[in-house]
Design a protein that fits this description.
By secondary structure, this protein is mostly helical. It folds into two domains: 123 residues, Peroxidase, domain 1 (Orthogonal Bundle); 133 residues, Peroxidase, domain 2 (Orthogonal Bundle), CATH 1.10.420.10. The protein contains 13 helices and two strands; from the N terminus they run H-H-H-H-H-H-H-E-H-H-E-H-H-H-H. Strands 1-2 form a two-stranded antiparallel sheet. Helix 2 crosses helix 5, helix 4 packs across helix 5 and helix 12 packs across helix 13. The longest helix is centred in the last third of the chain and has 16 residues. The protein is globular, with a radius of gyration of 20 Å. About 5% of the residues have low confidence. The structure holds protoporphyrin IX containing FE and 2-acetamido-2-deoxy-beta-D-glucopyranose (4 copies). The site of one 2-acetamido-2-deoxy-beta-D-glucopyranose has 3 residues, from loops. The site of one 2-acetamido-2-deoxy-beta-D-glucopyranose (NAG) has 9 residues, from helix 6. One of its GO terms (biological process) is hydrogen peroxide catabolic process. It comes from Acer yangbiense. Belongs to the peroxidase family. Ascorbate peroxidase subfamily. InterPro entries: Haem_peroxidase, Haem_peroxidase_sf, Peroxidase_pln, Peroxidases_heam-ligand_BS, Secretory_peroxidase. One of its GO terms (molecular function) is heme binding.
Length: 319
């Protein structure tokens, strides 16, 4: 009997560790302390989008990156200091931009409710707004995250890589409590934005021992990518949009994927097992089904908790 109880407690501890993702976040967390928070964040995102159409992609990617490393604790926003190189200065940072949007939102929020709202919450809200303002779905963001004090460039090796295969992606996501369905739905984030040549170079030059180009890639699509990304590409900014409508949050990504017109091996990998392939077809056929799944999975990602303890006053520096 006692042994059974001990075993149960042990199992419970294994499944629900101290930093369980199911922490006390709530939709109405700031209702009393900062009622105008969401309006301010939306305004900052909207304003930035007027001058720069790439802002939504930047914010969505930034939130994903934040949550996948040390949980959603705004570690991605911290600047390098002294000898410590922050995430921001790690290798996959080519895709990080639009930090100023968070800085501006934080400034407006601090003016209204000083010391109350975490940078991690502002980033989660900004990512939601980025999707909604690009024509995608909107949702209630659970709030109450705390900001962390650690950010290391080397941690970014934990992000899934664009060359990952399906089993690597599955492992990467399941480590964070995310399923294969989450993987497929969240990969739909690639309906927004841009990738540099280096991120899909492996598929268009020296693919493997027998193919120069990934044979699963549509040949004319591959040819167009090779023309912007030659073998020894010297143009640092060269690359391609992730789908043909890179500022619209739609399901075109899945339609392109089914045609062999995705950029990354990690996108193509979703077609390599029946379970994920079926979901790709489902989302390609129905924007509604995609949106529903995307919202569910985004809320899950945004609940990955970190070890954050404070409300940072400046999102780039620990208190
Ligand atoms: C499944 C694993 C994933 C891999 C391997 C991956 C990989 C990448 C890579 C390599 C880039 C391009 C970087 C560059 O060359 O500039 C990129 C861009 C992007 N990713 Fe992902 N990603 C993944 C999942 C996600 C998720 C879950 C989201 C959000 C829901 C997301 C949203 C984006 C967005 C919006 C961009 C465009 C960024 C921009 O244009 O500024 N990705 N991703
Ligand atoms: C990326 O990292 C390099 C140094 O490693 C840094 O010079 C650059 O500013 C970083 N980019 C962003 C957007 O932070
Ligand atoms: C970088 O991170 C990896 C995996 O998280 C770890 O194995 C490695 O020791 C780290 N390297 C440094 C220099 O900290
Ligand atoms: C994925 O890659 C790993 C090595 O990185 C390999 O061990 C594994 O067999 C690969 N899985 C598939 C399904 O190709
Ligand atoms: C996630 O993928 C990256 C890049 O392939 C790898 O370095 C990291 O170890 C993976 N993490 C997990 C938990 O599988």
């Amino acid at each position: 009997m006692t042994a059974n109880i001990v075993a149960l407690v042990l199992v419970a501890l294994l499944y629900f560790p101290i930093s369980s993702p199911v922490s006390a976040l709530s939709s109405n967390y700031y209702d009393k302390t900062c009622p105008q928070l969401e309006t301010k964040v939306t305004y900052a995102v909207q304003k930035a989008m007027m001058n720069d159409k790439t802002v939504p992609a930047g914010l969505l990617r930034m939130h994903f990156h934040d949550c996948f490393i040390r949980g959603c604790d705004a570690s991605v926003l911290l600047a390098s200091k002294g000898k410590n190189k922050a995430e921001k200065d790690g290798p996959p940072n080519v895709s990080l931009h639009a930090f100023y949007v968070i800085r501006n939102a934080k400034k407006d929020v601090e003016a209204l409710c000083p010391g109350v709202v975490s940078c991690a919450d502002i980033l989660a809200l900004a990512a939601r707004d980025a999707v909604a303002l690009s024509g995608g779905p909107t949702w209630d963001v659970p709030k109450g995250r705390k900001d962390g004090r650690i950010s290391k460039a080397n941690d970014t090796v934990q992000l899934p890589a664009p060359v990952s295969n399906i089993s690597e992606l599955q492992r990467n996501f399941s480590q964070r409590g995310l399923s294969m369905k989450d993987l497929v739905a969240l990969s739909g984030g690639h309906t927004l934005g841009f990738a540099h040549c280096s991120s899909f170079q492996n598929r268009i030059h020296n693919f493997d021992a027998t193919h120069d180009i990934d044979p699963t890639m549509n040949p004319s699509f591959a040819a167009s990518l090779r023309s912007v990304c030659p073998m020894h590409n010297k143009v640092k900014k060269a690359g391609a949009n992730l789908d043909p409508s890179p500022v619209a949050f739609d399901n075109a990504y899945y339609k392109m994927l089914l045609q062999g017109k995705s950029l990354f091996s990690s996108d193509q990998a979703l077609l390599t097992v029946p379970k994920t392939k079926k979901l790709v077809s489902k989302f390609a056929a129905s924007q509604k089904a995609f949106e529903k799944a995307f919202v569910r999975s985004m809320i899950k990602v945004s609940r990955i908790s970190g070890a954050g303890q404070e409300i940072r006053l400046d999102c780039e520096v620990v208190n």
